[in-house]
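Quick board copy: two proteins, each given as sequence then tokens.
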Amino acid sequence: MYCINCGKELPDDAKFCPGCGNKIGSKPKADVKMPDFKMPDVKIPDFSNYIKAVKIPKKILVPAAAGIAAIILIILSIVLFSSIFSSKAKLPHGVKFGDSIEKVLDKADNSWIDESILGEEFVASNIDSSFLGFEEKTFTFNIEYYFDNTGSLNRVEMDVSYDLNYSGHLRNEISDYLNDSGAETVKAESIVEMLKTKDMIIELTNLGNADCSIEYRPICTENFGKFIKGNKINLPYGLEFGTSAEEIIEADKNAVFENNNEHSLDSELCATYFGFDHTDFSVSLSYHLDNSGNLEAVSLSTNLGWYSGNAYNMLRNMFVEELGEPSSQNDNELVWEIDGITILLDDWGENGTISLAPASEIQNIDQNESENENYIPASVFELPFGVTWENSANEISAKFWENSLRLDYSFYGIDMPDDNLSVSCLYLNEGCAIQVYTNYLDYETGLSVWTSLENYFTNAAGALGEDSSDEASSPSLYWIIGDTRVEMWVLADDEPYSYINIDYRKNK
């Protein structure tokens, strides 16, 4: 303790200062009285002659000065870092996740409302090259802003292409710029790269040296609690079996009816739902509804995209650790029962699929799916133009020529009136193989077509496609549907999903 009048250190029990005699707790003494100011001759006195200086010991002064300097340095560092970070690693046109459609239209120059081939509404716009630091190069930026079912921005996609003679590698240049801006690369493969900032994930996909797609998503902040907690399964968003479709949509902002299917709501989750990091993989989510429109089952499919890894093994190990060994197993199909709910885990290449349903209902899921208007039972599954394996190769080929070797996308329930598929008959010793293949498709359209075809054949087969590719090849799946084996694959090319092939053969 120190005297407030002279600054001398005081004993703990002192009542008066031994240095100046000032009473402890009293105000400092003043040597002179304040001058008597008189109007109108107003003068500002020099108070330095009337105020007695207070001496501050070095024990207090030095640490205090050092502390203040440290605080100032920290503040300046934060301000400087924030300035650099926010000026570069940001969304186009200054939009923010959560912005309404109206706000995005107002902020984004030359923007308009458009619709994807699957009927998903988005706001389209473009931006100049300086957004990604290209001052002397001319690029084309096509931007699409997507919204959840409340009309709030939750995803931004951008296609970037160079429209002059360009010899560099666009994805690498964009990656370098974002890393210099404060983004951190967390995964990098030959085709894709994932970067993370404090509030979003940025994924770059190489579409050729001079073309690149960029996807921005907010950092996953959902907190569902633990998927398996004791003897209880926590369904996404705290939902329960029997919940109505309206309640699902209210709880899950990403839940939407796809392709006018009244029996299924599609959504997405991040890996944090299972206790993994949100950068490990993404999760596609489907809510299956009964005839009354209430939740009867939940399906989840992990998606590693183009990244290496094995999500199926991660989930299997997690389930075994939490639940013990499965109650039944058929190859890679594992089954557990807990709290009256059946968990079915199956592999899909290196990804995993999970079905959740009340134990009494899990066996009826396939049967209930047949009541879905988009479900295609194997008994009514058709080959293109109604041909059958009873027809000869010449008869099948003649039927195709009658239709100019062209097949409408509507055959698979896909709305693409301005494009069509090519179809041909490949002569084999045992008959004919029917081949259907797309024209060139850009990445977004190709991925959408692949997903729609995959759903079509999965519904027809009543099961997910089996992976028929190896680690080094492009995606390839096959299904057995009645007496037909269907295989679908992506033609190896610099641009993923640009060409998709379908091969029908009689199953031996």
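And the next:
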Amino acid sequence: MRIETTPWCDEAPLATYLEALGLSQPDTQNAADDAHPDRGGAPLLMHASLALTLQLAMEREVLLEAAVDAWSEAIEALMNRYRRRRASSLLVSLEAALADPEALGEAAEAKGLTLTLPKACESVTVPVTPFYQLLAETLVQQRPALQGAVALLEALSLPLGEATADDAVLDPALAWQEQREGLKAAAELPVLREALEQAQSEQETLQARLGQAEETAAEKAQVVTQQQATLQALQDDQARVEQALEEATERADSQLQQLRQRVKTLETENEEHQQQADIHQQRAQHYRQQTETRHQDVQRYSEQAQASRQEVARLQTALKQLQQEHGQLRKRLQQATALPARPVNDEPPVASPSHREELRCLRESEWFDPEWYRQEYPDVRASDADPAEHYLLYGARLGRNPSPHFLTDAYLQRYPDVAKTGANPLVHYLLHGRAEGREAVAVGEPQ
């Protein structure tokens, strides 16, 4: 059957619902497209509510005013057609027809219209959001002309399931009273708008917080990257120092080996010279009376032997000195592998008055246990370094503890202002922190 509807009823999802009633989409047309009175009209006139029409229009990005004007023109055309052919046409609500297809079939049959519905025709409820319902009620309330058109449309439309075709013309005053009662819900629209604005404000606040959190995370990531680069540079410096020490040790070993070989050679030569001297002495004693020249040769060889012995003694002394230097190099190598790497140009700490005062403070404190420190860190014990001086210069930077009663890293983590100054944690606690009410963390205590 050919039908006429308000705008956007021939598109999904309403086209699917109408097709389920046996009204295919090609037979559906917009009432405003056939508004001329001389042209023929369809016997079944169906109108969607203003709220449903606005929802369909907004989904298709149609302007609000254009949607209201198109719907007003369409219902005016539908009502004009119904007035001209009241006996042979049927004006019904599209939502009511989809909700009660059997009532639509009975109303069409009462009008003498041929409407063949499928046997398994089920009712369909078209979903309309409360926002568009309140928007439609507000527009009707604000526009008197639209109020009259809506009231007249409801008066002319056949209420399916509640009346027959002969009762299609209702009392306009009663219809208007029902419409006014329905528009009272529009008073809630400002409350909903205020809630919507508050939700948008909260969303903006959350977005601002999210942006701040992202900036903070980026700054922390940059700090971590810088720290990693610093750590990598320190590791590279340590590797270079270890390599230089290893090369120096290899050179010292090579020189020592050469000196040993040289000493061995000189000893061999000395033995040879001694043997020759003995021979010459024997010959000198044997031929002393025979020739003065032989005696001079023996004297010369004796002097050469003496010089060789002096050279051997000197080389032996140099050998002992090199052995001592070699031992010192080995000890320095062991200390270097246990202590943190320093830049090549870094000068050793100067024994300033404050340095001596800090050492004295550590040695006199019950918080520093030198024997425990030696036993806890084998490299200190192996290097025979002073425990207090080692902790003051290196141990704290390595995160080592001066005793079981004081945790270095825990103190710095608890008081980041101390960490920023670079002061020795235990020295700071003894000289300042204890007086300031700061607490020390011992092994086993919560940090």
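Board note added afterward: The beta strands are 3-5, 28-30, 44-47, 90-93.
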